[in-house]
Amino acid sequence: MNPMIIEQAARFVRQELAEESSGHDWRHIERVWKLARRIGAEEGADLFICELAALLHDIADEKLNESEAAGLAKVRGWLEEHDVDAEAASCVMEIISTMSFKGGKGGGMRTIEGRVVQDADRLDALGAIGIARTFAYSGAKGQLTYDPDLPWRDDMTPEEYRKGRSTAVNHFHEKLFKLKDLMNTKTARELAQERHAYMEEFLERFLAEWNGKM
Predict the structure, then answer these.
(1) How many domains does the chain contain in total?
(2) Domain encompassing residue 46
């Protein structure tokens, strides 16, 4: 593993996403990076690939770029500029381009490194951090906290998931509660259990207060 490239990637992402307020900021990346290291070590993955993909994954996020293609081009350009080995760069690009949830329509990950990074990113959408990020993102998108007259959506195209009308509370049902059963690795499945349970407790309390029962 080349620690200099990892250090340069961390510095680049910190500069790019320091002021991002939708829950896809540098601190999110930092948490995913740490989780990817932890899960990758447990699962015997190539840690250089895991760390580099974890660090760069949201640079390509279509929510933060003109398009998915523009975001991926930005990542590809950075890898070329920093002389990342062609095979390693190809692995990183494959992971970043295929790991998104996409309304539940995202495909499976081909490599153990891809499965590790996808799990790390999904774990950061769960638990107390996941709750905080959900409300931050909904606010940034101009969505309501909750509307009991707006039902959550069970089946969506990626386009509907990205641009359809929803609420922060609906997002628990549309994505967050599904993630526990979508974890790829044994390590992540174990970590997801408690985070999932915490979200269930939170939402139960939220709805009880909303309805004046507490």
Answers:
(1) 1
(2) 3-210
